[in-house]
Structures are given as structure tokens and as C-alpha cells.
Amino acid sequence: MHALMADLPLVLDNVSLDVGGARLIDRVDLTISPGAPTLIVGPNGAGKTSLLRLCMGLVVPTSGRVSWGSRLAAGRSRRAIVFQRPVMLRRSVAANVRFALAQAGVPRREHAARALALLDRVGLLDLAGRPARRLSSGEQQRLALARALARDPELLLLDEPTANLDPAATRAVEDIVLSAAQSGIKIMMTTHDLGQVRRLAGDVIFLVRGTVCERRPMAELFDHPLMPETAAFLRGDLVI
């Protein structure tokens, strides 16, 4: 692979994002460093997906700046993102991973072995030859994670990767996420599932109307929320 520079710490400095006259992210200051997973929660429309897109470098802030390892240019990176509904290429499961390895600059001679190792890592080795679009939703999400891991990411961004999955499929995805975190990959993940936050998070960002309302270690946020909006959200009340 080509030499890649570090992407951590990721720093958002007074970042705002306006789209179509609407402010989606409002003057956010964040530093994301190596460590346990950071989970992002908040009501619908809070800006969670927009925040991940800014962190990935997929969109440019309207104001403020985003830097990766002190670099302002997104450039070639060790970042990867998985969306809630990943697109499967019209080819086999293994070929999807080989394509991701090629995009990451892995030498062609390593593709076959690396692809099989990645599929084994996400529990899809037995399905390597199956058309990717014939997988179940949970299997497709695990394949999307294998493709993301093909980039050897330092930072892995996940946008509600278990939304609409059954409990067994959710558990399989969570196991992969925890394994990735334990291997040293920094996870940033959005979710609506507070049980999932308890299972996965080291710290939690609570986002409301594009603003970071609170960021705390997981246990502290659940046991002693500082802001009334946070307490209301954790009770299941409507937060607008």
C-alpha cells in the first residue's frame, strides 16, 4: 500500500455546515483521538450524518475548519465510512472486497488472500462466491464493514450500521465493531439505540440542532446528564 499519513487526532474547529439555506451543523468544536468508540446520538435531524460526512471529508464546512493529524487536506487517508444502506457491487462477495483492496492501493498479488482473511474476520468466508446483492441485510452490512476494513483504517465512521437489523444481525455487527476497536481502530458511530450505546461506547456525543449539547464518558452521561435536553432524550421524551 502507499504510505498514508495519520488521520488522528481529528479536529473540528468552530465548524458550521449550511445546505440549501439550512444550518445542519452549528459551530462545532470537537477533537477525536485514539481510544474507545465514540457514539453519536440525538433526535432525528440533529445533524449526525452530516457530522460524519464532515469527519470523512465528503463535504466541506461552510465555515471553520476540519483537520486530520494536523493536515487540512482530506487527501489519501486511513479513513473509511459505512452508511446505513451500503451499495453492493454487482459481483461476488469476495470480488467486492478485492475491489476495495484495489482502491486502497493493496498490491494485486495480495488481493485473494487478504480478501479471504477479511471475509473470515466478518464471518462471511463461507459466502465468498455468492452474489453480494443476494445477501441478507445483515450480511450486506458485514460485507460493507469488510470493504471498509480493507482500507486498514485508523478511523472508521459508521452511520447507524444496525438500523432495521434483527437482534442476531445487530449482535454480529456489534461484535465486528468491538473487535475493530480492540485492534486499535478509532470508531465514530451514530445510533438511535441507547442499549447499543451502553454496550459499545467509551464516550458519547449528544447532538441537538447541529450543536454538540454534551460530550461525556458513557457512564457519566447516562448517570448524571448535565443538560436538560440530554436528560429528556435519555428518558425517551421528545427533543426538538
Explain what the structure shows.
By secondary structure, this protein is α/β, with parallel strands linked by helices. It has a domain at 10-88 and 153-235: P-loop containing nucleotide triphosphate hydrolases (Rossmann fold, 3-Layer(aba) Sandwich), CATH 3.40.50.300. Helix content is 34%, strand content 24%. The protein contains eight helices and nine strands. The strands form two sheets. It has a six-stranded mixed beta sheet with strand order 5-6-7-3-8-9, with helices on both faces. It has a three-stranded antiparallel beta sheet with strand order 2-1-4, covered by helices on one side. α2 crosses α3, α3 packs across α4 and α4 runs parallel beside α5 (167-182). The protein is globular. It starts with 9 loop residues before the first strand and ends in a 5-residue tail after the last helix.
The end-to-end span amounts to: 46 Å
Fourth CATH level, the homologous superfamily of one domain: P-loop containing nucleotide triphosphate hydrolases
Helix content: 25-40%
Tally of contiguous helical segments: 8
CATH class of one domain: Alpha Beta
Q: Sketch the major β-sheet.
A: 6 strands, mixed
- For the record, the CATH architecture of one domain stands as 3-Layer(aba) Sandwich
CATH topology of one domain: Rossmann fold
Low-confidence stretches: none
State which percent range the strand residues make up.
Answer: 15-25%
The overall pLDDT, averaged over residues, is 94
How many distinct beta strands?
A: 9
Q: Calculate Rg over CA atoms.
A: 18 Å
Strand ordering within the main sheet: 5-6-7-3-8-9
Please write the string of helix (H) and strand (E) elements.
EEEHEEHHHEHEHEEHH
Task: Give the helix/strand class.
Answer: alpha/beta
Q: Tell me the overall shape.
A: globular
